[in-house]
Design goal:
Elements (H helix, E strand, L loop, with lengths): L1 E3 L9 E2 L5 E3 L10 H10 L7 E4 L7 E2 L3 H6 L1 H10 L4 E5 L4 E2 L9 E3 L6 E5 L2 E6 L7 H10 L2 H13 L3 H11 L10 H8 L10 E4 L6 E5 L2 E5 L3 H4 L1 E6 L2 E6 L5
Parallel strand pairs: 2-9, 3-4, 4-6, 5-7, 6-8, 10-11, 11-13
Antiparallel strand pairs: 1-15, 3-14, 9-10, 12-13, 14-15
Helix pairs in contact: 1-3
């Protein structure tokens, strides 16, 4: 997938750098281990970038305040923190990974309430979001509750005394999930999903969450749904005004 940007101004943006890499929905877990190899390739500079943008659901289960979820992902967490010493890393929290600021002190972390994130690339306005920011009311209430630090600490305590029964149940549920399912009438869904935004303020709007690896125009705005790294091991790179899909070769 290759998409060119259209020129338009933006306001108070975060700068996207030439060569920035976007990764979405890696769902790193016992089921999807390849993301760890991708991080190692960045560490050894076999893959090079000045800016790494993690677009949410990078981990299948990583919750600040739930100690066990950090411990089980420790190697990947440590690698991201090491990379942040030399690479600017932006992390847009998803619905599988949130309350991350204390876990990633050197990373610029953006929770759901800060999304869409307004960015600029060569005077072009770009919106970034994981993709669940504009959900129905019931989901928004759920996300507010589950991200509450007291709720998470309570769940962490119950999980610990219950011999990990909460995480075991979530693992079992996620192991049955099809991470690569195609959505019917996706373009119509996106138009409804983004209808409350002033979408024409963006030249491009990029999100993950839906795992569709598709792009199309909504009037003058280019919409991009990123590939799920968990499905095809693809990431995207921003070069010369174009967002291009790249396969990750595990032999790197």
């Amino acid at each position: 997938m290759q998409v060119s940007l259209i020129l338009r101004m933006s306001h108070s943006p975060i700068k996207l750098l030439e060569g920035a890499i976007f990764v979405s929905d890696a769902h790193y877990s016992f089921k999807h281990l390849e993301f760890l190899e991708f991080l190692k390739a960045l560490r050894t500079q076999k893959i090079q970038t000045p800016q790494l943008i993690l677009m949410g659901d990078i981990f299948d289960l990583l919750f600040g305040g739930v100690t066990k979820t950090v411990e089980r992902n420790q190697e990947a967490v440590d690698l991201i923190n090491t990379l942040s010493d030399n690479i600017e890393i932006l992390y847009l929290e998803g619905n599988h990974d949130f309350n991350l600021k204390e876990i990633f002190p050197g990373v610029k972390v953006y929770p759901i309430e800060d999304q869409p994130l307004q960015c600029e690339y060569q005077e072009q306005s770009v919106g970034l979001a994981h993709g669940d920011f504009n959900a129905p009311l019931g989901y928004r209430v759920y996300t507010a509750v589950i991200r509450n630090s007291l709720v998470l600490r309570t769940l962490s305590f119950l999980n610990k005394i219950g011999k990990q029964f909460i995480l075991n149940a979530l693992d079992a549920k996620l192991s049955r999930k099809n991470d690569c399912q195609e959505m019917d009438a996706f373009e119509a869904y996106v138009k409804r999903h983004l209808s409350s935004l002033k979408l024409d303020t963006y030249d491009m709007f990029i999100e993950g969450h839906h795992h569709q690896d598709l792009s199309f125009n909504i009037e003058k705005t280019v919409y991009v749904n990123l590939p799920a790294f968990a499905c095809g091991l693809k990431y995207m790179c921003l070069e010369e005004g174009t967002l291009t899909s790249n396969p990750f070769e595990k032999s790197l």
